[in-house]
Amino acid sequence: MKDVHLVRYFSSLVTISDGRVVRVTTPTISHCPLAGFLYKGLKRSSDMPLSSLKEEIGKVVEGKIERFGFCSKKRVLWDEEVSVPYGASEIMAYGLRNNAIDSSVIVCDGAGTVVVPIPQVVQGIGARMHSVLRTSAIPEVVNKLRLFGCHVIHNDASIDQRDGVAEAAKKGYKNIAVTINAYKGESLKSVRELERRLGVSVTILVICTTDIGSERINEIGKYADMVWACRSREVRNILCVKAIEILSDASPVYILTRKGKALVRGYSPNIFRMRKKAETRGVA
User: Fold this and answer.
1) Whether this model's pTM surpasses 0.85
2) Alpha-carbon distance 148 to 144, whole Å?
3) Cβ-based neighbours of 215, under 8 Å, separated by 6 or more
């Protein structure tokens, strides 16, 4: 059976199998400032017909497959550069380097939920990452992660961030950061309950908030430490007033708690090493 990966980018669902894009759904948004910054082909997306926009979204993902092995056995998993100024992987990698956290629970295409204690691997995974909703196990990716000292939670590449936090605690990590995909719907409350039961500190970073509803936003406001506004007007309206600090203006990141603030304390993107050049087929 071929591997199948379902990711979400620019609000489109993109299906990848056997190292190629096989389907792209119609996006629900017409412009994303971050995508326009990273990819020249999406810079003027709001002026494009939907058919052209879908094609360009597919090209971005194909570029990641070609250049970085996204969703394939050639996956690049080590990176030391900043790709997105205020990206979740950049902030977690910074936190690991500065001992604000000792592990990150993240999702990797080809492996599912993983516990990663290495900042360069957090960045290697996250710099290439789109919102992964489903993935298949790729033995070469799993083996490479394990060689780097990471912990792959499920052999079938299942995505379960709560299980990842439990495994991180079992391995002895005490200060854990975890990304939760808002669109995917995993329970933030259950992670907080697990945190209390296991006696560890968990910093919850909520990503991929485009198109989520008010009930989900309220849950995020109650349990998250940081949240990326993405293209959600509702997130901006509801959570902006709860933020104790805001990173970035174009695509806001809301710091909701002191724990979130501690993670980003002193953080500043290294603009001299950033990938600034936007390319049609993607750079990050």
Assistant:
1) yes
2) 6
3) none
Residue pLDDT tens, the chain, 284 long:
589 999 999 999 999 999 999 999 999 988 887 787 778 888 888 888 888 999 999 999 999 999 999 999 999 999 988 888 899 999 999 999 999 999 999 999 999 999 999 999 999 999 878 899 999 999 999 999 999 999 999 999 999 999 999 999 999 999 999 999 999 999 999 999 999 999 999 999 999 999 999 999 999 999 999 999 998 999 999 999 999 999 987 789 999 999 999 999 988 876 435 444 433 334 44
Instruction: Quickly list H helices, the chain.
Output: 33-38, 50-68, 88-97, 119-126, 139-147, 161-170, 188-198, 214-223, 233-239, 258-264
- DSSP label at 100? S
The tokens for 150 are 């990471």
